[in-house]
Amino acid sequence: MSVSGVNLLEHLQTPALIVTNGQVSFANNAAKALLGGHIVGQDVRIALRNPDAISVILDDSGGTTKIDGLSVGGSVWELDCHVIGQGERLVSLYDLSVQVSVARSHADFVANASHELRTPLATILGYVETLLNPKAGGDQETRERFLKTIRHEALRMKSLVGDLMSLSRIEATKHQVPTDSVDVVALVQETVGEFRDGANISVSSDCDSAIVSGDRAQIAQVFRNLIDNALKYGKPGGPVTITLEATDTGWLLIAVKDEGEGIAPEHLPRLTERFYRADTSRSRAAGGTGLGLSIVKHIVERHRGRFDITSRQGVGTTASMMLPIARS
Questions:
Q1: pTM of the entire structure?
Q2: What is the pLDDT of residue 323?
Q3: 263 plus 305 within the same structural domain
Q4: How far apart are CA 93 and CA 39, in angstroms?
Q5: What does the alpha-carbon distance between residue 68 and residue 100 come to, in Å, rounded to a whole number?
Q6: Is 253 within 8 Å of 276 (Cβ atoms)?
Q7: pLDDT > 90? residue 140
């Protein structure tokens, strides 16, 4: 390869090698960082130590192959080999770890969603089949009990489908920064008013209004989810406190606090994962879909904000977020 060609390869962030007659005659900085600077001058079979890679490199026609764990534990690489001259090969390595991780996440998501839908569906079908049997559940009390269960499970499925669709819409627009002006203080008060009379919710703010650039419907969804969680998992009848604080650095701090049992520390880092539940039976009994906090996280990130959950067992849980205040 010409000197200009070698200089061009040196500026690539993609690991690239030139293999001449089975030896590594050149490696750019990215390749040296991946495989070590000692590979220059080595036999390619020693430098890569991967039978699939060696087979492609030494083949007269070159080609492409995937390599697992190439000198970097757990990584998946695609090796692309081009014949550029007699006994000379240009080898490029592309990191596929992100694509593999995304594909695995999508597969897990579909599997979890299918499981979450299948559970209430199985209950519904079982009760319906019982009701259709004239010998079983014939009395009115039993029928009413079965029908209430069917309605509960159907509503649970409806909530799950709604959350799945909501999460899909949020992810589809996550790279689009919202630009509408939203008064968060007024929106919090409005959202609190949607909850049932008697709910012990208090709001305090150090400002009369706080304008952020955002999607009003999505921010309202964040507040509904957080308040709903605080009411479900907080102390029965206990207070839910919402505080808003505008900082001198241009951020609006919002915290939703309950006085419930709290969450064990080992669960906190995973609470925003899809379908993750700290207490599976309690969450399902309360009607949780396992997607609420994941939706909150995605919305806050779309608004270029930050979201965090802190908790002390026996004391309560605080869900807090920071949103950038719009400049005048």
A1: 0.60
A2: 95
A3: yes
A4: 15
A5: 11
A6: no
A7: no
